[in-house]
Specification:
Number of strands: 5
Largest sheet: 5 strands, mixed
Order of helices and strands: HHHHHHEHEHEHEEHHH
Distance between the termini: 104 Å
CATH superfamily of the domain at 109-215: Glutaredoxin
CATH architecture of the domain at 109-215: 3-Layer(aba) Sandwich
Helix content: 40-55%
Shape: elongated
């Protein structure tokens, strides 16, 4: 059928371009003859809601579960889901541990000898502990306490402790101060005894941060040692074995 003959008036009236989605009699005629595609029907709110629910259903259900829910749902999961859920569970556990540490630490805390086992040995699984034995009469010790206090705020997942040396170890010699011990899971991971090993009298905050990050006690964003020219005596003094006490006061050592 010739469209021009059938509808001469309409064609003359609509010589200008038309919006194909406009709801007009002329567009309806063009659709009837296949010249325009069918008009798209607008989606109502109910349809939009249904589409959104379909998208949400595509998300793995375990991503919205608590640890308790994950445990209860194990019997209904296939092998692939079990692997994914175990990975997600471990991620959630680590997130919770990290949150608990941030809420627990964050400052340099003073302890006495009787608190050693609780605060150091039983500090918690995978918790790093930095213990400073000091004397208030030694300026370097007080400078170190100041640096440690700042680092405790910057790295709240690490426990920073200080203790007066002679309150923890009877007759502990001043020449061995300051003394820094680094622990993890109750085991000594590093020790720095005396002024030289602790960075010297002009120790900078960044240098102490670098040293503790080298041991593993903190996760620093420093990319290199801020004091390259000095022999890294502190990191070379890291010892993996336990520290043994000797009766001779000329030795600086510590154990509980």
């Amino acid at each position: 059928m010739n469209l021009q003959r059938a509808f001469p008036v309409q064609q003359e009236r609509h010589s200008s371009p038309e919006d194909p989605n406009e709801d007009t009699e002329w567009n309806d005629i063009l659709r009837d003859f296949g010249i325009l595609p069918p008009k798209e029907e607008p989606k109502d709110d109910l349809e939009e809601m249904a589409l959104q629910m379909q998208k949400e259903a595509a998300v793995k259900p375990y991503e919205r579960m608590t640890l308790k829910d994950l445990k209860e749902a194990e019997d209904d999961l296939d092998e692939e889901d079990e692997r994914a859920i175990e990975q997600y569970r471990q991620q959630r556990i680590q997130e919770l541990k990290s949150l608990q540490r941030r809420q627990t630490f964050g400052e340099l805390t003073e302890i006495i000898s009787d608190q050693y086992v609780k605060e150091v040995t039983n500090a918690g699984e995978d918790v790093w502990v930095v213990l400073h034995l000091y004397s208030s009469s030694i300026p370097v010790c007080m400078q170190l306490n100041h640096h440690l206090s700042l680092l405790a705020r910057k790295f709240p997942e690490t426990k920073f402790l200080m203790a007066i040396a002679t309150n923890c170890i009877k007759n502990y010699p001043d020449k061995c101060l300051p003394t820094l011990f680094v622990y993890k899971n109750g085991q000594i991971k590093g020790q720095f005894i005396g002024i030289v090993e602790c960075g010297g009298t002009n120790l900078k905050l960044e240098e102490l941060e670098w040293t503790l990050s080298e041991v593993g006690a903190i996760k620093s964003d420093l990319e290199e040692n801020p004091k390259k020219e000095i022999i890294d005596m502190m990191t070379s003094s890291i010892r993996n074995s336990s520290i043994h006490l000797e009766d001779d006061d000329s030795h600086c050592s510590f154990q509980h």
